[in-house]
Amino acid sequence: MRITILALGSRGDVQPAVAVGKGLDQLGHEVKVASFAKYESLVRRSGLKFHKMENDPQTFLENHKEKIIHSGKNQSVATLLKAMKSFGPTLQRAARESLDACSDAQGAIYTGFASYFGRSIAMKKCIPEAYLAVQPAFSNTKRYPAGVSGRQNFSQFFNGMACSLVKNAIMSIFNLNVNHWRREELGLEPIHQPYLSYLRRQKVTNIGCYSRHVVPEDENVIPQTYISGFCYMDDEPDWRPGKNLIDFLQSGEKPFYFALDSVHFSNPEKTVRSIIDALKNTGQRGIIKFEGADEALRDLPDNLLKAENFPESWILPQMKAILHHGDSLATAAAMRSGIPSIVVTCSKEIPFWADRIYELDLGPESISNKKFNTEKLTAAIRKILNHRAIIVNAAILGERVRAENGARCAAGLIDKKFVSSLFAQTETNEIYPEDMLEYTTSFNAA
Q1: What is residue 430's predicted lDDT score, i.e. its pLDDT?
Q2: What is the pTM of this model?
Q3: Domains of the chain
């Protein structure tokens, strides 16, 4: 079966989608991934076909985020509205490209920005579809603030209400741009329903690519929603570490890993100095990866090594803990490896995973990149060293996450959904939760 995966977003959206695509390829499907040029090597390395997308909504919004952040409180709303208005043509061009990418598809999977128009493409072509989400998007959750609604935690009643309002508001803005394309180019009726109400009425397979041990199933979830487990892939199986790295790892106790490539710091030299001083204060060792900060990484002390390029699946299990920016990909990697996390949040990042890490006692409270200093990092390192529960909790969760095999589970569910749709005798062709349990059990036993 020919399946096109529309993976339009950050690496945190694309890599799990590629992992699921590889699982579908192993089940005998012909898989093509439509994404941006920077992810071509990732896709082709996995043995999948690649369709280059020219229009990048992710980059567009990232550029405007900085304008919104620095516009000041009084101008931020106006700047946001202006950005969303100018975003319309970019989104519509991406939708047209995605439709072209699905020209020969017998099934469509979408994630990231493609979720705003993937359903429309599947409806137009009358093909089965699946939506992959890297954080909760399918319920008016009451347990905690939704992934798209920021950090403020209310009572259960207001959590659910806030979640619904925020999601509906976001989708209303995007629908203003998508509806014109639906009506004029696809000949489909515009979407006027609230977001979750609309999803409830559609026969879409929704898959949460995260662990149920981290984000429990919610009683308010929409039908045909399943949690597969984190969808990850082992990169570069033939990679071999250099002598410097081997010698460093063998010369002392496990180091802390500082993954700073995706964290924005206005003063890299000051940031590196804070790390050096915090390690000295705590008597620890570290490995640092900080792209674009070569000047700041010169003349490092013996207990801090500048990282070479290595697969995180290889290095993380040998670390004592990891400092990262708290996106879904870094969070999944840390949890899978069974090590604690120190999260440095950026103002442009939604702190959902940082909050889950803290609430599950998998690491200290997150640090804002604007308030990052020696004292805060020293306190965070000492919290991990002095609270054994954090280390134990991370190790136990790692065993559970590794047992889930999310990519194979998601691929198995999509395979059953898509293939059965070709021979469906009923109108609904629903897949019930027992099927997900069946796949989880069989794959874990393999």
Answers
A1: 42
A2: 0.84
A3: 2-229+405-445 (3.40.50.2000), 243-402 (3.40.50.2000)
